[in-house]
Design brief:
Strand order of the largest sheet of chain A: 7-3-10-9-8
Strand content of chain A: 15-25%
Oligomer: homodimer
Radius of gyration of chain A: 26 Å
Mean pLDDT of chain A: 92
Largest interface: A-B, 37 and 37 residues
Helix content of chain A: 40-55%
Number of strands of chain A: 10
Distance between the termini of chain A: 36 Å
Chain lengths: 342, 342
DNA sequence: ATTAGCAGTCACAGGCGGAGAGTGCTAAAA
DNA sequence: TTTTAGCACTCTCCGCCTGTGACTGCTAAT
């Protein structure tokens, strides 16, 4: 997809995009002349801008205004910037350290999202890692009182679920322990369907527990991404594009509803490297002036998650890409530690 | 704190507050004349309004405008409305049913907050219930691989925590099971300090686990409210008082920072019934045009939480009070079920 | 104590105009 | 053919003004 623009036109286009990203103001030919050494006059720049406008890269808000990039212009820009810019080492260290010091796994993803949001000044998206198919690691039954039992299930190393079970007969902790021992030896390492297929003439209580466990695992299997953190909405809404209140509220609604997430992530799931979706490219009316920079992290098959940045089309793509890249590496590293890989 | 206003002046004050709550517009004497049968002319109403203004109940945004309530006016209003209005039965049922159908305890509080936010069109606050002093219910060790172990701790029936432990020597699941059995028999039902006080000549591994468990419990003890859901920000920001963007952003920042919560909840902890804090009454600059309707729920000593509504001073107090009241009853009921009371 | 009547105040919306920013075009230069 | 200087033209933005309408506060009568 190499464009057939002359090198000066390419340069001017990239300047316009970069300048607009930095200032949020339409870019005038004089501004380009002043801030960059192109060796040509503003009139020449204007001629090139007229051409770029004709080709649909840029547009003017009104007749006597500077230019702002269109989707096609942003696209050209992101294709042309280096995808491998790295975050400053010191920032890398800070990120790594703050994540490593967390005690609970669940925190990794939330904290990662919060840090990333601050780094890019936009909304950060981090999903929990998810396996293709979950297997049971461990189950545990704790007696709360007489009829009420707490069922704790560990699924595939990292997923911890709890549920109350009410029995019709009073039980003791000893009974519960023997049930959980039995079920653990028979079910450990199995998937939900394997568990249900296994016939081991269970007692009523064992049957009850088995079903509950299988239900939880099925629910887990069927989730696309069972938790998705979206952090930094406030930072994003501080941007000048959201000056109008109705737009702010629409975005907030979007972040609560989250129905656009699923198709987005499903599409993302196919590809391997950082993917950038600019404005209307998403074919989703409600996302039409937002862009996404998305990547994946984790271990293929076993535990994959998505990580990304959401911002106005005018976001700092270079920064977003490098941050997402680094963050996905760190999370992959952390997750593989839990799964005993590498 | 009964005020010495004539009954007509009281009536007019309450009309002004109610009308302003409903319309968000300054209330004119003519409006009162038109919408309510007071049997006096607008000039008389104006005279009374002048008195109410002089006494600090209401004020005018500018000379030739209607009146809006001041904090003192709102205070008079909330004191005078019935505190025992009930939600419609059908709404009560809907709330009860949606909460009862949830499988995970953690969901109760989040869902309760979301429902309440929708009901009052403002921000709903729900904290997790918290005990005065936690005791250990159960601990469990699950081998993930060689050196990496997942420690699961159940604290006081409802709090479930997990943490990874990395051992310097490889261990087997059998070893882990015997460790957890031993620790469970010795530690069950104890508080963190009791656990630390107990000297049972532990092995290095047992020592490691004991310390981790105690750490988690101490952390839990020290938290004021370990999770606080604030839902419905979008609904609140839809209100006309937040038309200016900087105010919206300030509120969003407030909801993220949450440092005002602790003093608020601590103060609330002393009293038993629904507490209403109007605007500046909080003595917190950042909360000066917000009001809170707060209540508690749960079981004294064992598991107490806070629940409430946050909105602009111009919020519908009647609705907020009845909703908070009912919600706290439902949550108390649910929580006592888990603790086997009642 | 209440009311009618009326003058006075102030916010608000619409219209006007000048300044400034930036372009597009034209004609000349390279 | 490409680039440039020069200039007319367009359009936004901002401040200013003014008329209108919404309310009040006051006064004098009831």
């Amino acid at each position: 997809m190499v464009s057939d623009l002359t090198s000066r036109r390419r340069a001017i286009l990239n300047i316009i995009v970069a300048e607009y990203i930095a200032t949020a103001m339409p870019v005038a030919s004089e501004t380009i002349l002043r801030n960059y050494q192109l060796g040509v006059s503003s009139a020449t720049i204007r001629n090139d801008m007229a051409y770029l406008e004709q080709e649909g890269f840029i547009a003017k808000p009104h007749t006597s205004a500077g230019s702002i990039p269109l989707v096609k212009g942003y696209r050209h820009y992101v294709e042309s910037i280096a995808k491998d810019t790295e975050l400053p080492l010191e920032e890398q260290h800070r990120i790594r350290d703050s994540l490593r010091n967390l005690e609970e796994t669940e925190q990794w993803f939330k904290v990662a999202a919060a840090m990333m949001a601050r780094l890019v000044g936009n909304v950060a998206l981090v999903t929990f890692p998810k396996a293709r198919r979950y297997h049971l690691k461990h189950l545990e039954l704790v007696l709360l009182h007489e009829f009420l039992v707490l069922l704790i299930v560990v699924i595939s190393e990292t997923v911890l679920r709890q549920q109350f079970l009410t029995f019709s007969e009073p039980v003791t902790q000893e009974q519960l322990t023997s049930i959980s021992n039995k079920l653990n030896t028979h079910y450990a390492g199995l998937t939900s369907s394997q568990i249900l297929a296994k016939k081991l003439l269970p007692t009523a209580e064992e049957k009850r527990v088995t079903e509950a466990v299988a239900d939880m695992m099925v629910a887990e299997d069927e989730l696309d991404y069972h938790a998705t953190y979206l952090e930094g909405l406030r930072l994003m809404l501080g941007q000048p594009e959201f000056i109008r209140k109705d737009r702010m509220l629409r975005i907030m609604e979007l972040m609560e509803a989250r129905d656009w997430l699923k198709p987005m992530l499903r599409q993302q799931a196919e590809t391997e490297q950082v993917q950038i979706v600019i404005g209307e490219e998403s074919h989703d009316e409600s996302l039409k002036d937002l862009s996404l920079v998305l990547s994946r992290y984790g271990i293929p098959q076993k535990a994959r998650g998505a990580i990304g940045v959401i911002g106005p089309t005018r976001m700092d793509y270079r920064r977003a890409i490098s941050t997402v890249n680094y963050m996905s590496q760190v999370l992959s590293y952390l997750v593989s530690g839990v799964y005993g890989e590498d």
